[in-house]
Each structure stands twice: as structure tokens, then as C-alpha cells.
Structure of Bacterioferretin, Dps family protein:
Amino acid sequence: MTSRSAHIQFTTAIERVPTIPGMSHWPMDGSASQHEVLGTLNDAMANAIVCLLRYRSHHFLARSARSYAAAWDFLDHSNNQQGHADLIAEQIVLLGGQPDFTPDKLLQQCRAEHTNDPTVTDMLSENLIAAHLLVDDYRQFIVFLRDAYPTTRRMLESILEVEQAHVVELAQLLQVESACAWPLRRGHESH
């Protein structure tokens, strides 16, 4: 896959995927109810957990393909997502809510496409799309909150910074991998 076709595929996927469910009708004047904030925090936490699982899976697949730069980047991003999920869960509890770790909630948050038998380039593209979606979601949520929940907003801003760095890292790795276009070579370990 060339970097141009990866960009076209990425742009097309971004256009097809909705933002945080229900957020489009919220008032953007900072008048969010606690119920709306807790629901959206649970959505954000579920997104972080889904990304954690995808990154972790891709870490092991990329290692088996001997694409160690991508593998370690995926592992680092997976660990970041675990930290984000923990921060968000803690904030939910501080606001008087209960974090929703049910599998049904996680399945509802699967918005990025999943590729069967992916190449390293496929994995990078999939994660780049997901990272862009997270950046957009966090930006919208921060705008939605305005000054109503300053601690929650600051936490989301710190997560947003990390997600923006993920986008840059993934885009750079995708550019390098697209130039090489190595297929996934499972089971070819040296003894």
C-alpha cells in the first residue's frame, strides 16, 4: 500500500465514522448535566479500553513480523491507553458515578475498522484512524465542558496531548512501513 492509498483509505474511514454518540445535540455553552458528563466519560473510558486491546494485539502481531519499531510503539500506546482508562475511571468515581466496564459497553465503542490477517501497514493505518477519532472526540468533549467541570477538562486536555503525539508517531511509522510494505510473516521465527 502506498502512502497515498493509505491516506485515501484513512480519509474515507474518517468520513464514515460518527463522533461521540449523542454529543451533537448537547449545548456547547458549558451547561452539561452531570449525567451527560458521566455518560460521555464512560464512553471515553470504553474507547480507551478498546484502543488498549487493539494496540496490544497489534504489538504481538508486529513483533511476529519482525517490525520492532511498530511493535514497541503499539506497546507504548497500549500502556498509555491503560493509563487514560484509569484516569477517566477515577474521574467518574470522583464525580459520583460508576465506571462501566461491561463487555457490551466496549462493543458499542468499536468504531475503527478491524482488518483480518493485517500487514504492519494495515495495523498502522487502523491505529492512525482510531487515534484521529480519539483526538476529535476529546476536542469535542473539551469544548462541550468549557468551564463547567475544570478538573475533568484539564484531565481530558492532558490525554488529548498524548493522543495528538500518537497521531504524529503513527503517521511517521506508516510512512516508513508503506515504503517497505512488508507482509506479516507469522511463524517464521529463528531458532
Q: What stands out?
A: Residues 3-12+33-180 form a domain with the Ferritin fold (CATH 1.20.1260.10). The CA atoms of residues 6 and 125 lie 7 Å apart. Residues 1-26, 185-191 have pLDDT under 50 and may be disordered.
